[in-house]
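Q: Got a minute? One more chain.
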Amino acid sequence: MTDNVTLNAGSPWTITAVDKLKELWNAGVEPALVAQTLGRPEQEIRAKAAELKLPQHVETRR
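A: Always. Here it is, folded:
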């Protein structure tokens, strides 16, 4: 698997990326997978989710 997690690190968030974050987050996708999908570090994903006041994840999957 290609290391895509820093592709967009530190870049401004586009409307499309924010919409995708909301979609994946609200579907219960794990933050690490959201990070891989959006090409950003997991910490940026969690920070943006908090900024958007998205519900916290309860990581009980698997």
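A: The chain has one domain: 1-57.
Q: Perfect, thanks.
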